[in-house]
Amino acid sequence: MAAPSPHQPRPTSDGVPRAIDDDPPSRAIAVRLPAALTIYARTLLRWRPKCEIVVLREGAETFPAMLAALTTAKKSICLEVYILAADLTAQRFKDIMIERARAGIAVRIMYDAVGSFGLADSWFAELREVGAVVVAFNPIAVWRRRFRLSHRDHRKILVVDDEVAFIGGLNIADEYASKADGGKGWHDMHCRVRGPAVLDLARLFRRTWLSTGGTAYPAPRRASKAPDGPGTSFARVIENTKLRQRGTFRRAYIHVIKCAQKSVLIENAYFLPERGVRRALTLAVKRGVQVGIIVPGSSDVKMVQYASDYILRRLAKAGVEILHWQGSMMHAKTAVVDGTWSTIGSYNFDAQSRLNNLEVTLEVLDPVVGTEMITQFERDREHCTRYDEAAWLRLPWYRKVLAWVGYRLRRFL
Question: What is the pTM of this model?
Fold first, then answer.
């Protein structure tokens, strides 16, 4: 049998094509990656060269960078977010977007109806008065055909002028703002993107926007036709808009974990990985790979934490280093493998992200970014306590019962 062309989606063992974009395969362009990076790329399609990736830690770094980009907007602002709250942090964003809309900038805001539940429609009145367009993703309307409450838009994307984008785990709410700015100082990660990958995020926003009923506007140009970018990173947007893309994130993680030679370092807020991921992690340990995972020591969703304790106990027994974050809620969704492959996005290792939510992450191939991510993991380690079999045995009996119950209900968490 002839080998598949590098310009075509390569089938996996489960028969699912490797290409995940909705563009026809004939339009997909395979990128020539350096030999040292190719092993970590599950496909050569839709990698964007010469991207500039700036890693942003928590609201203290993320929100000022986003607000600065909004202030300089000259053509368009596209904001897609799961949680938008009527609080001080969101008001800062609102004030700038009102000013930009008055200046004639096209402002589009898409928020999730459940994630932002309780946000009154009147909060958007001033924005609409100056021409901003606002849509709610999957409004709570049980009378609608094919309404599914669990289908949520969990993405966090900001694209300004199709030139700079932000992606990661931070919602627009006080929980994510620094304590110095009156927030709760949740630990999370985001990144700023420049270069061709910005156009992939812009086009992804537009597809979701149109499917949600947003007013049509011209499509951004294709990233494959963009001029050279300002950076040195290879970046690839992973998303799951279509049903056939449901396992995209899982397959990407399993691939890089299997390829890992030195280290796999993961930070994830809701860590309930299914069997395939757990097996890949334990086999990596057996190969001598350092595997470390940071999860919240005290989660805002307690049943997920209980179920996670049950799963993590088994991984700890297999040699995976499990670390419980201490302090404000740990909400990050990041990973770095061998200091070469990194990802920052919205994807959690739970059933909601795997089966129901719209998610997006950015894959990055760049040892410079990877080294920064490892440094960040080591800094975060200082705020953690180790979780192992001894820690499990110290838990009171009712916590162990709750952990067992949570594990049995993991498909609904």
Answer: 0.91
